[in-house]
Amino acid sequence: MTEISNRIDAVWGDPAAWEAAGWQWERLPEIRRMVNRHVTGDEAIDPLGWFFRRVARERPLPLGRALVLACGSGGLELRLIGEGMVREIVAVDLSPRSLEVARATARQSGVTGIEYRCCDMNALDVAGPFDLVIGSSALHHCENLEGIFDAIRRILVPGGWFFLNDYVGPNRLQYDAAQVMQVNRLLQLLPDHLVVNEAGFSRRGFRRAPVAEVVAFDPSEAPRSADILRVMRQSLAVETVRPYGGNLLYLTLSNLAQNFDVEHSGDAVALDYLKLLIEASDHWRVTRPGQDHFAVAVARQPIS
After folding, report:
1. What CATH number is given to the structural domain containing 229?
2. What is the pLDDT of residues 70-90, one digit of tens each?
3. Dihedral sign, CA of 118, 219, 15, 297?
4. Using the 8-state DSSP alphabet, how is residue 4 labeled?
5. Total domain count for the chain?
6. Which is an annotated GO molecular function term of this record (predicted)?
7. Range 267-286 average pLDDT
8. Among 210, 279, 285, which Cα is nearest to 30's?
9. Local structure of 221: helix, strand or coil
10. Nearest to residue 170, comparing CAs of 155, 180, 181, 157?
């Protein structure tokens, strides 16, 4: 393993350590419903389910063969196979420890048809053909976007699908001053018990980490995230892009989302504040169009 892959393995190889200080925003059902509303128009239908409904209008499911990029601990593949969306999957990741977890989870679940491989997205070496390529929280970790989209175009069958659900915000997490100020305003408004993470630290006083600090923690973190949609359009025929914000919520709720898990805690105060945070996020999106930090996209390999 290279020095970079060793660092990535240290950061992402242990799923239990990912949220040791607290949950991230997408763990909350209220947030997932908000995302669904922005992407699919129905709070009960998530982006992946919505995508496969679109595919099923054109051809019967399951699709034959899919590639999952940066698969992590493997939950997505289990759903794809288990819900009859895909028959066969190749899943790649640069973290050997993550792949060990994914393989073990698949074995314990009795799910077959998944092949896990250690692979760098910056030099994707996977033989096609594939009916589908999925990048879920994946491509923002890739620097060689031109290379990976060329590879995706090459390995997709004519008319094959590409599904993206990812962070497309500023490179290396360099948020602008207005965003940092607004996140701090929201954190300041929250009661004390909602801003303390699992490690016992208050999240008030959010700051933008310098680039060197971001790279030192994870050299794969958002090197060209802001370019993903542009480069995708250069290689594939884009059918739709559905932004869903995140500019405020994913920073405000980082390592704090467990405090808003109202479906289990019954904390009515937390629910009220969470609804206010979502309203603030929606208002931010309306007043700053085109600046969403997260998006779902569907693209195709053109049929010549």
Report:
1. 3.40.50.150
2. 999 899 999 999 999 999 999
3. negative
4. H
5. 1
6. S-adenosylmethionine-dependent methyltransferase activity
7. 94
8. 279
9. coil
10. 180
